[in-house]
Specification:
By secondary structure, the protein is of the alpha+beta class. 39% of the residues lie in helices and 16% in strands. It has 2 domains: 234 residues, Sandwich (Jelly Rolls); 102 residues, Arc Repressor Mutant, subunit A, CATH 1.10.10. It has 15 helices and 12 strands.
Length: 391
């Protein structure tokens, strides 16, 4: 007999391909939010830093070490370890980046010893702070009988205004060179040849790691902010380590170092004279003159420090003071005297210094062969550190 039962609904649905399941195919309601209007995005400013590079790798092995000696001669005298033959080779790399108020130097060298003698200190007129971060290897630097040990995780700090000597294993280092006046604490003095460590030093090293990776991408507007940030972080590390010169230590400092510090503290004082230095430091005029004879005399040294301070203010794009006000703030009592002294010292007028277009941190690459030219360029960067000079 035929089956007269009506078909079930699910069997009808399965057998009828034309039937649509409204539930499964119903459109999903999406809530739409209005898009926020984006401001016009400006392209990033172009990078400006170009490194000054030097390498011995493309030179004959017998010439590599002498080329490195010539390149580093403005800063230190370099020697090979005992019983190391010259023909073995000396594969060294050096890349310097000029941020205007700070030099950043990446260096890779085999084992060697180094010396910054008193004669080089007197002749170079450089008293910058040298901040060193050892990436690999170890260093030992001695100043006045105190040895500073550099290794990964630590930061070394010393001045170029005082003789030092030391040695290094095969090492990679990152160095910063900053003008003396940039690292200045109002109430305390930074101790020479110290090692910084601890949490804040680790943060400084982390920041320098990031800076090193971005050097080729920095724009002109980035540079003053980076210099200021590095400066603040270094001073924070120094304060945290309580690495300051105490009054008891002042007596062991050289006369020139004591004068350096006193002048920096009182640079804008109108009565900063030879007579006051003799009185405050309890030193005779004859001894003071003898100590500063290589610098052209005490008066010339004070005037040069004031001119460098004024030059830094004139080169600061954020400083809109009148030139006369900058002169008076630097300790000059006459605008005419300031202008004459400034032009004689730098070879251009204060107004030209303010309107300089080509900053000194626009470097260039140096091939290994003309090592004399490279040394002169690196020497020029060191000597003009903190200034913006005409190209």
């Amino acid at each position: 007999m035929p089956d007269n039962d009506p078909p079930r609904a699910d069997s009808v649905q399965a057998s009828d391909p034309t039937r649509v399941d409204d539930t499964r195919n119903a459109p999903i309601e999406r809530r739409r939010f209005p898009r926020e209007a984006r401001p016009d995005e400006q392209p990033p400013p172009p990078p400006v830093l170009k490194p000054l590079r030097f390498s011995t790798r493309d030179l004959p092995q017998a010439q590599q070490f002498s080329a490195w000696q010539a390149y580093m001669a403005p800063l230190v005298d370099v020697r090979l370890p005992d019983n190391s033959p010259l023909d073995r080779g000396f594969l060294a790399d050096h890349a310097a980046w000029n941020l205007g108020g700070m030099l950043v130097v990446q260096q890779s060298t085999p084992a060697h010893s180094f010396l910054r003698p008193d004669a080089k200190v007197r002749s170079s007129h450089m008293d910058h702070w040298h901040v060193s971060v050892v990436r690999s290897g170890r260093t030992w630097t001695e100043v006045n009988g105190h040895v500073c040990h550099g290794e990964a995780g630590k930061v070394e700090l010393r001045t170029l205004g005082y003789p030092f000597r030391g040695r290094s294993t095969e090492a990679q280092t990152l160095s910063l060179y900053l003008p003396r006046e940039l690292l200045h604490l109002a109430s305390t003095e930074i101790k020479n040849n110290i090692t910084l460590s601890g949490t804040r030093t680790t943060l400084l090293i982390d920041y320098l790691d990031g800076l090193e990776a971005k050097l080729a991408q920095l724009s002109e507007g980035d540079l003053p902010h980076i210099v200021q940030t590095v400066r603040d972080m270094i001073l924070t590390c120094v304060s945290a380590s309580a690495a300051h010169s105490s009054s008891a230590e002042q007596g062991s400092l050289s006369l020139k170092e004591r004068v350096y510090r006193f002048v920096q503290h009182n640079l804008t004082a109108p009565d900063l004279t030879t007579e006051r230095l003799c009185r405050e430091l309890a030193v005779s005029r004859t001894r003071l003159y003898q100590a500063f004879e290589p610098d052209g005399g005490v008066h010339h040294y004070i005037q040069r420090r004031r001119l460098l301070s004024a030059h830094a203010s004139l080169s600061d794009a954020a400083n809109r003071q009148q030139i006369t006000d900058i002169a008076f703030a630097a300790g000059f009592s006459s605008a005419a005297h300031f202008s004459r002294a400034f032009s004689k010292e730098f070879g251009y007028s204060p107004r030209e210094a303010r309107n300089v277009v080509a900053p000194s941190y626009l470097g260039h690459s140096v091939e290994p062969a003309p090592e004399v030219e490279g040394a002169q360029s690196f020497d020029k960067w060191l000597r003009s550190l903190g200034q913006r000079i005409q190209a």
